[in-house]
Structures are given as C-alpha cells and as structure tokens.
Amino acid sequence: MEYFTTTSSASRRAVDCVIVGIYERGKLGGGAGDIDKASKGELSRLVKSGDVSTQVGEATLLTGVPGVKAPRVVVAGLGKVSKFDATAFRKAVAASVHAISRSKSKQILNCLTLEDASGVDIYYKARFTAEIAGDVLYRFTQMKSGRKPAAMPL
What we know:
By secondary structure, this protein is α/β, with parallel strands linked by helices. It is 32% helix and 15% strand. A four-stranded mixed sheet has the order 2-3-1-4, sandwiched between helices.
C-alpha cells in the first residue's frame, strides 16, 4: 500500500474515490464543500432529502456525482461540530473505508484529515487512516500447512 499527501481539491483529483464529511444540520466539511460546489449543490440536496446521513459512523457511497473527476464519493457523517474528536474521526474513517471496501476502488483521497478534531493532530489522522485502511482492506487468501489433516475417529 502506498500513501501520499496532496493539496489538490477534492472535486479535481482523478482518483477512484474521494472521502468527504458532513456534520449535523448539513454543515459541509472542507472536501464536501468543494464537491458540493462542483456538483451545483448535489451533496446538500442528498442530505436534505435524507439519502445521506450526518450521523457519526455512517457513510454513503455515491457514484457519478456531476462535476467531480472521481467516479465515487463517500460521504461520511461527522455528527456535531462541537463533538468531533478522535473517537468521531476514527468512526467516520472506519465507516468510509468499509463502504469503499465493497467497491473496486484502488486510489482513495481522504479529505476527512482536513477536519478539525479536538485533541487530534494531522499525524494522528494520517496514521489512523493508514491503519484502518490496512485493517479493513486486508484479505486472507491462503493458508499453508505442511501437515496432512488428522483423521477423526468415528
């Protein structure tokens, strides 16, 4: 797995998937604001209609968002702005990566690291993102054993 940082905007980055966050009452996070502007209010409409949740620990995978280069956008609920901390950040990232794990995405831009989380620095956000991605996306594919299976008496 490779990790890198970028300063490009969420809507202009040509990756397989972009992760953005939305707080309660439809307050858009940094990356979500850019995606919403590029899509002429698509995210705001989906939150208003109830199709996208702002509750911490919930994430919605969207495809074909207009005006966005990435074919997939995951919108993570961030809960209340005043309560966004390390625990909420971890839940949002985990829910997002779980949503992505069911897709064919290989390149992911995580804009949740742009959000202010009380008591959390950028190092923690980047480290946790890498850890949870490794944990969620790991697949056990083969078990090797040099022994033959033991016979069970009847």
